[in-house]
Amino acid sequence: MKIATAAYPLDWFDDWSDYEAKLTAWVGEAAQEGADLLVFPEYGAMELASLDGKKVAGDLEGSIRAVAGRVGSSYNLHASLAARFGVHILSASAPVQEAGAVLNRAALFGPAGLIGVQDKQIMTRFERDDWGIAGATGGAGPLKVFDTELGRMGILICYDCEFPLLAREMAEKGVEILLIPSCTEALEGYWRVRIGAMARALENQCVTVMSSLVGKEPRLFAVEENTGMGGIFGPPDRGFPPTGVIAEGVMDRPGWTYATVDLANVRTVRDDGHVLNKAHWPEQEVSLARKTQKPAA
């Protein structure tokens, strides 16, 4: 498959048609380049708050309500574009309100429509302290595995990719490609997520796809400044680059980063790589169990 992962800048819209035109242009460009899978970043949907004006977009609770109220229309647009261009799209994540909780949710679409949604599991400090976003302990849905025409996928939203056991759960269920939409204000935040993405590709001998918000939009609360670029990573083993970097963009430059990936290479390294990280994972538990055993009397 050919993958397109975004370095996506937030914009200010005066009318829904402006948002529709932007998204259509982005999807159309990637489709014209032959992309099969398009990955948008975490919190990219926050630009929808602009449609309710500066006062709402500059307020925490107001912007969450405004974006959550437009998620349904956004999903309809994504579904329409996926069908029109014959592609799979991971939407930019958005805050949604459900059963009294606010969740950070991304949706995966295929040419036939919505495939499913994934909620972020573990919140960063600003999400839990300032936004009140609910994670795995507060109402977020469980990790899911998505069977698609392109392969078996999982989604780890930003901070989630920094926790190895989340990726491991999906790898044990046969996931071969992990989608990692991110939103990071500072360079160190970008590198935390990227290091996590590359580590998960190494440990699970899979492909990871990281997208990023980029640029500044001071009128949008909590996403005023963003740093990052797109990246596609794999295990440094046969069939993959020795660095593990399949493709990367240019820091803070908006646009798509492309790479063609053959998931047969994932199966090859899992079965007969120079190392077998995925297969040897349980040996950690054996080693640690020995350390905790009491010596015989």
Number of strands: 14
Q: What class do helices, strands and sheet pairing give?
A: alpha/beta
Shape: globular
* Average pLDDT metric: 96
User: What's the architecture in CATH terms?
Assistant: 4-Layer Sandwich
Write the layout of secondary structure elements.
Elements: E1 2-9, H1 16-32, E2 37-39, H2 54-57, H3 60-68, H4 71-85, E3 88-90, E4 94-98, E5 101-110, E6 113-119, H5 125-131, E7 146-148, E8 151-155, H6 164-171, E9 177-182, H7 187-204, E10 207-216, E11 225-226, E12 231-233, E13 245-248, E14 255-260, H8 264-272, H9 277-280, H10 282-292
Helix pairs in contact: 1-4, 6-7
Describe the 3D structure.
This protein is α/β, with parallel strands linked by helices and 297 residues long. The protein has one domain (2-292): 4-Layer Sandwich (Nitrilase/N-carbamoyl-D-aminoacid amidohydrolase), CATH 3.60.110. The chain has helices spanning 16-32, 54-57, 60-68, 71-85, 125-131, 164-171, 187-204, 264-272, 277-280, 282-292; strands at 2-9, 37-39, 88-90, 94-98, 101-110, 113-119, 146-148, 151-155, 177-182, 207-216, 225-226, 231-233, 245-248, 255-260. Strands 1, 2, 3, 4, 5, 6, 7, 8, 9, 10, 11, 12, 13 and 14 form a 14-stranded mixed sheet that branches. Helix 1 packs parallel to helix 4 (71-85) and helix 6 (164-171) runs parallel beside helix 7 (187-204). It starts with a strand and ends in a 5-residue tail after the last helix. The mean pLDDT is 96.
